[in-house]
Amino acid sequence: MYTNSTSWYSNALQTDMPIATYGHYGFALLLIPTAAADYLEYERFQLINALAPFIDAGKLKVFSINSMNKESWMNNDMLPEHKAIRHNQFNEYVFNEVIPFIRKSTSNDTMIYTCGASFGALHAMNLFLKKPDLINGVISLSGVYHLTEYTNGYWDNQVYLNSPEHYIPNLTDEWYLNKIRASHHIHIYAGSGAYEDPASAKRFSTILFDKGIWNNVEIWGSDIAHEWGSWLKMLPTIINTKF
Q1: What is the pTM of this model?
Q2: Dihedrals φ, ψ of 211, to 5°?
Q3: What are the b/e assignments for 112-144, b being 16+ CB within 10 Å?
Q4: Which candidate in 34, 72, 181, 200 could, as Cys together with 118 as Cys, close a disulfide (CB 3.0–4.6 Å)?
Q5: Quick one: pLDDT at residue 78?
Q6: Given strand 137-141, what is the order of strands in its sheet?
Q7: Measured between alpha carbons, how far is 43 from 142 in angstroms, rounded to an integer?
Q8: Helices assigned H by DSSP within 94-227
Q9: What's the DSSP call for residue 94?
Q10: How far apart are CA 155 and CA 122, in angstroms?
Q11: How many other CB atoms sit within 10 Å of the CB of residue 188?
Q12: Which of 99, 103, 123 is nearest to 35 (CA)?
């Protein structure tokens, strides 16, 4: 498998940001790390190896970036409003720097899908919903879709605007809605085991359907807990059966 790592100084984040690339061809899968993890997390936990047959076959090309959660919602030493600012800077980094990098590494016609597990699932969904003209779909594994899960009670307009469960019911702009509706790949997966929240997956799926947005929601069994072993089963199955 072709593997490459590079980095650049991000204007949005004012720091060096690395990115790992796996494979040569296929649609682009942009991996957003869980919690406070880094761009090599999915490799360390063997998810890249689990995807290797699809990568080597040219079905997909994977890109993996750092999270900024340690400098935003998971940093208890920051003021909440500063956490929101950092979160928005992360969004801008993805939209204005990562997506162009992916385009340069693939083509202007390549489909781009975000993907994440746990906290990364919320980010992946939010990034797609905010820029459906740049991102073509999303795979969310074991996520919740309200940012208030991570804000310790803090609420402002920026929390609202990054919390899909809150802003999607109020979205009326038909341009955005039609771009989102055009996606054939909105996949929401959860387990029923320890520390999973299948109710959140079902609730957000219903919110999307109420807006006329098709999505694929699947709730797996009680043996599927909130852990890497579950995601190592889920993601290859999704790539194999849904793409």
Answers
A1: 0.97
A2: -95, 10
A3: bbbbbbbbbbbbbbbbbbbbbebbbbbbbbbbb
A4: 34
A5: 87
A6: 3-10, 15-22, 60-65, 27-32, 112-117, 137-141, 186-190, 216-219
A7: 19
A8: 99-105, 119-130, 157-161, 164-167, 174-181, 198-210
A9: I
A10: 17
A11: 24
A12: 123
| 143: nearest Cα among 66, 22, 34, 11 | 34
Q: Which two tokens stand for residue 180?
A: 């989102």
Under 8 Å CB-to-CB from 75, ≥6 apart: which residues?
83
Give, to the nearest 10 degrees, the angle between helix 119-130 and helix 80-93: 60
10-21, pLDDT tens digit by residue? 999 999 999 999
pLDDT at 36: 84
Place of tokens 């957000």: 204
Q: What is the DSSP letter of 208?
A: H
Range of the domain at 163: 3-242
Number of domains in the chain: 1
Tell me, what CATH number does 204's domain have? 3.40.50.1820
